[in-house]
Specification:
- The protein is an alpha+beta fold.
- Strands 2-3-1-4 form a 4-stranded antiparallel beta sheet.
- The relative contact order is 0.27.
């Protein structure tokens, strides 16, 4: 039986990814300006991304802008709890619930199928 690592030991952040929807050049430029205001662009994956470690004013503004992009342009937005990358210098969530467990297991992706999570 697979066990979930103790979540209380894991701080986590919310990784938000956005894929720009195809549109005519005028709308596409508007979409890019909106995404650029709250996220960074990864040229390798062609995906915009940002992280949230606390529900503060900046986080709410980010979520609102991404919602606006999705509703106005059809931008695809995904959210995933993750273990903070080593470069993260911001706040983190410390809830020991399900998001922390998902983040802990996600940090161990790439392990062979059937291999138990490392303690």
């Amino acid at each position: 039986m697979t066990s979930i690592p103790p979540a209380t030991e894991t701080s986590w952040i919310l990784k938000i990814c956005a894929s720009a929807a195809p549109a005519n050049s005028g709308h596409f430029d508007q979409q890019v300006q909106l995404l650029r205001s709250v996220a960074a662009y990864d040229t390798e994956t062609s995906i915009w991304h940002t992280y949230i470690g606390t529900l503060d004013t900046r986080a709410l503004e980010t979520l609102q802008r991404l919602y606006e992009g999705a509703s106005k342009f059809g931008t695809t937005v995904t959210l995933q709890p993750v273990v903070p990358p080593s470069t993260w210098r911001g706040p983190t969530f410390h809830d020991g619930g399900v998001p922390a467990a998902v983040a802990a297991m996600g940090a161990q992706q790439g392990r062979p199928l059937g291999e138990l999570p490392k303690a």
